[in-house]
Structures are given as structure tokens and as C-alpha cells.
Amino acid sequence: GGMAAEGDVELELETEPNGSSGGGDGAGGRAAEKPRKHDSGAADLERVTDYAEEKEIQSSNLETAMSVIGDRRSREQKAKQEREKELAKVTIKKEDLELIMTEMEISRAAAERSLREHMGNVVEALITLTN
């Protein structure tokens, strides 16, 4: 009795690796499903790409989307910074600045910006602001 049971246990242990390799087959079967999906879409690559992009965003894997947006942003940011640098070079008079602030009732920043955009020309800045 006792000895036979032990033999059984050994047999079970031996069949287990086989069983798990069978499980591996099951996993393999699952993996085989994926290419099938891809093949159906491969004909229409664009659709697949759209689908993939949608999936990315849906699966809240926003990283990709964010990095794309980020790239675009940093490009715009760079252009803006270049512009700001150009504008910063413009010399403006404090009196002009104060005049625009009082006339247009706008913040110092806004007044300064419009002055700079008009190369420090207070008349042009005022004209643009009144239009």
C-alpha cells in the first residue's frame, strides 16, 4: 500500500512537466491568435495604424500621445522663445510703457509686449491696441 502510493506520487511528478508543456502549447495557441488578427489588418496598413493609435490612447497608455504632443509643444516653445528673445532685444521707454498701460488699461506685461512687437513704437502699439 504505502509503497504503491509513493510510486504514484513519482509518476505524477513525472507527468507534470509534460502537462506544463501542454500548457505551453495552450499559450502557444494564444500567441498564434495574435498574428491572425494582424494578417487581417495587414492588407490595410493605415487602418491598423489608426487602430493602434486609438488603442494606445484608449489603453490610457498616454505616454506615446504625450511624447508626440510634447515634441510638437517643445517645437512651438522653441519658436516662441526665439520670438521672445527677439522681442526682448527691443528697447522700450518706461514712459511709453506707462502711457499704454494708462491709455489701454492693460497690464504692464501686455503693454510691454505690444510695445516690443512694434519695435518700441508707441504710436503703432496704441493703434493696434485700439483696433
Structure keywords:
131 residues, mainly alpha, 0% strand
Describe the structure.
There is one protein chain. The protein is 86% helix and 0% strand. By secondary structure, the chain is mainly α. Among the domains are: 62-89; 92-130. Helix 4 (94-104) packs across helix 5 (108-117) and helix 4 runs parallel beside helix 6. The radius of gyration is 35 Å and the shape is elongated. The protein starts with a helix and ends with a helix. 6% of the residues are buried. Residues 90-130 form the Nascent polypeptide-associated complex subunit alpha-like UBA domain. One of its GO terms (biological process) is negative regulation of apoptotic process. It holds the Pfam family UBA_HYPK. Residues 20-29 have a biased composition (Gly residues).
Secondary-structure blueprint of this entry?
Blueprint: H1 2-42, H2 45-58, H3 62-89, H4 94-104, H5 108-117, H6 122-130
Strands, total number: 0
Shape: elongated
Unreliable sequence segments: 15-29
Taken as a percent bin, the fraction of beta residues is under 5%
The helix/strand order is HHHHHH
Structural class based on helices, strands and sheet pairing = mainly alpha
Cα(first) to Cα(last) distance is 104 Å
- Helix content percent band: over 70%
Mean pLDDT rating:
74
Protein name: HYPK protein
